[in-house]
Amino acid sequence: MDDATTLERLADLLVGFGANVQEGQIVAVSSEIGKEPLTRAIAASAYRHGATFVDVAYADPYVRRARIEHGSDAALGTVPSWYGERILRLGEQRCARIALTGPVAPGLLEDLDPGRVGRDRSQALREAGKVINDRTTNWTIGPCPTPGWATLVHPELEPDAALAKLWEEIVHVCRLDEDDPVAAWRARMATLVGVAQRLTDARFDALRFEGPGTDLTVGLLPSSSWISAAFETVDGIAHAPNLPSEEVFTTPDPLRTEGTVRATKPLLVGGATIKGLTVRFEGGRAVAIDAEQGADTLRELTRHDEGGARLGEVALVDREGRIGPLGTVFYDTLLDENAASHVALGRGFDFAVEEGDLERVNDSLVHIDFMIGGDDVDVTGVTADGARVPVLRGGAWQL
Fold it and tell me: Keywords of this protein's UniProt record, alphabetized (predicted)?
């Protein structure tokens, strides 16, 4: 495929299947400087699908650097009210939302004070969590290759070759190499929906993760239901919030996480790279966060509020997806979290529990995924009476 064809096919997948843009909708696109070609292709596709207006918001990572480097402490804690108000209005007017991931300028913040990077609140909006939990928008997030991201992922290649390689991988993991990518995604989603239902039916009291450097027990809520990335809005619009997506996930009990876990992949969060991460939990709280690189930034992020150091998500990923087998570390949460089982510090999902457990869902401004799974990490379900049931062994489902 030539570049124009690839852009158009990825844009059509995100617009038509991911967000499932409807005739007459306003479409909000969150992008960055450096992602203009795909952003424009998304706008064109959205209008072809009947959008009445496409509103693009471009972020500039260099402007964020200036804020962190030169802004006052007050500046780091300031987010204009209209940022959150805009998201709420998108929900009220039942708009569609599309966001693009992938770093434009990786390493841009690495020489700054990690504590200040972690204290910058411009990246987290509580209103975004409300709109997701209220299910008022049909939305999706997808990857956008850039030269900077490509050289981070494939430093062994020349820049042009690295970008071509990254595009090749994105085409593969998004199933754009299939004659009918949408049909391929629907088949994969059907499999994951079935797995999620079996996990829900099992009604485990907890999950235990055991592997090198990891012995972690994550308690579940009585009504925790497992979900795949096959969503539906309150108005009945089906959409796929993450493309690609290979996970099933639920909301855990934020008070019942115990043990130590080692991240199986590095992560890029808040503009900082975190490598060699280990976290120790007691009474549901992350009481020790250590890493070979980036620990200070993550510690600061978890101090945003009381819920920042507790879990809001636990997700399982098998070895049958397309991301994990590549063996590539993408330094992008969208892709890396769908290569391996993971947990998330911070905000939980109201829609994954029933009304009686809503008050127990973790509440936070942040939601920070990190990967803890792999073929050498066993996942076991623990029933209320203490019985152990294999869930994942060698990356394969056992249920």
Answer: Aminopeptidase, Hydrolase, Metal-binding, Metalloprotease, Protease
* Parent domain of 336: 188-397
Contact 56, 27 (CB under 8 A): no
- Quick one: 276 and 338 in the same domain? yes
367 Cβ contact partners less than 8 Å away, ≥ 6 residues apart:
129, 312, 313, 344, 345, 346, 347
User: Do 252 and 379 reside in the same domain of the chain?
Assistant: yes
CA distance 322 to 168: 13
SS3 for 368? strand
For residue 140, CA distances in Å to 16, 232, 295, 313 come to 10, 12, 30, 18
pLDDT, one tens digit per residue, over 117-173 is: 888 877 667 888 889 989 999 999 999 999 999 999 999 999 999 999 999 999 999
- CA 147 to chain centroid, in Å, comes to 22
Task: Read off the pLDDT of residues 177-226 as tens digits, 9 standing for 90 and up.
Answer: 999 999 999 999 999 999 999 999 999 999 999 999 999 999 999 999 99
Specify the amino acid at residue 19.
A
